[in-house]
Amino acid sequence: MKCPLCGNLIDSTNLNRCVRFPICPGFIDEETLTIQSIQEYVVFDLETTGFNKKEDRIIEIGAIKVKNGRVVDRFSTLCAPIKGGKPMYISAKITEVTGIKNVDLLNQIPESEAVKNFMCWLGESKISVAHNGLKFDIPFLKEACKRSNVEFKFTHILDTMLLSKALNYVNNGNIPNNKQETLARYFGVDYQAHRAVNDCEALLKIFDKLKNDAKNINFSLKKI
To answer: Cα separation of 98 and 115, whole Å?
Structure first.
């Protein structure tokens, strides 16, 4: 993130003040982070055995780390779903949607290790970007971290579904709904649903398009 006054970096270890503090008094108020103010964020996506954050498990995590408009790193892992010490089996429907088969998850690291690795990989990155992430990905990841006794590090989310709704694409007749695949078609982005890494690559391109359209609106991130 950059100082809104002088453009230098923000020191997240010093109350989000400018690195030139006290020479520059600029700071970022975490309660009012906006799409225009973020310079570092992580686009991420989960694939899961189902939609129940307590009963289901993560089977894949994909993420892309962006700093100052440049992709600086990627994260990708499959993980074995385990519940009560026993392996879970994914349904034919989940395989149809994701392309992930039960055999693909054999000998993969467990969910607990995967979320630990992901949180370590985040480093100082605290801002997440995900599609429908406020209702699905964030609660699911939080629950997985809780199960695994792993610190959840994200502090804010920019939900691209909410951003799309704020831009009124549906009400203006541009698109029939705010699904990621619909936005991908609208913006001409190649989208191979629903593997996590592919979703992240597509969402990053969609987010760039959304940001261009959002220059004249004040869209705040959600604290999580």
So the answer is: 19
